[in-house]
Design goal:
Elements (H helix, E strand, L loop, with lengths): L5 H79 L4 H82 L4 H11 L6 E5 L2 E2 L8 H8 L4 E2 L6 E3 L7
Parallel strand pairs: 1-4
Antiparallel strand pairs: 1-2, 3-4
């Protein structure tokens, strides 16, 4: 039975660690995209709901104003009839004051009503033209969100698989060596590196001849410069 050298286990663990970092970064980006997409959809829905609510509210207010105007016009017509039947200049003057006041009220109500009708016209255009397009965009955003969520699920499955592979490798490493690896990883993102042309593959510090001999025998030694764990892949040229 062939025994896997410790350096190969560390090399595999290093690859899995780097893969885990890449996967985690990808997951975090997807989560950020999902939050942004959810916010965009919520904002669009809120806008649509607000415009529909405003349309109902202003339509109701216009109806009330028109009823008020009709009531004032009715009073005004009655006052004008009374003016025609006035019995004295004093009574005539009093009725004219009342008519003037009613006309002022009527003009004020009409101005407000015209303003609200202009708003209502704008809202009607939005409801007939912009709202359908906004609803379609909302559907497209929801479809995009669903696709991102599926992508996130796939990433999470891969992350779980990665963790499972890491556990398998870790269980084949003695606690003492794994502790050394973890200690190095807490300070350096790539704690294990190969010897390349008799030098450290990360900092290029030249490895001593006696250390090279030990490394070729599958030993793991710390680099005397950057302190990474050095290994020698004997199948490749050193």
């Amino acid at each position: 039975m062939q025994i896997t050298p410790l350096w190969q286990k560390f090399k595999q663990l290093g690859l899995l660690d780097r893969q885990a970092i890449t996967l985690t970064d990808a997951r975090d980006k997807l989560i950020a995209q999902i939050k942004a997409q959810q916010t965009a959809i919520a904002n669009r829905k809120n806008l649509l709901e607000h415009m529909v609510s405003e349309h109902k509210k202003i339509s109701h207010e216009v109806g009330l104003k028109e009823a008020d105007i009709n009531a004032v016009v009715t009073k005004l017509t009655a006052k004008e009839h009374r003016l025609e039947e006035a019995q004295s200049p004093k009574e005539e003057l009093a009725i004219e004051h009342e008519i003037t006041a009613l006309k002022k009220i009527c003009h004020g109500l009409e101005d407000v009503c015209l303003e609200q009708m202009a708003q209502l016209e704008t809202l009607n255009r939005f409801m007939s033209q912009d709202a359908p397009a906004a609803l379609e965009e909302c559907k497209q955003e929801q479809a995009a969100l669903a696709a991102i969520e599926l992508e996130l699920e796939a990433i999470n499955v891969t992350i779980a698989s990665n963790r499972g592979e890491q556990e398998i490798v870790i269980n084949t490493i003695t606690p003492e060596w794994f502790k050394k690896y973890q200690s190095m990883k807490s300070n350096i993102p790539d704690p294990i590196t190969p010897v390349v042309q008799s030098s450290c593959g990360s900092c290029f510090y030249e490895v001593l001849a006696q250390d090279l001999v030990r490394l070729k025998l599958n030993a793991i030694l710390p680099c005397r410069s950057c302190f990474r764990l050095l290994y020698c892949d004997t199948e490749k040229q050193v």
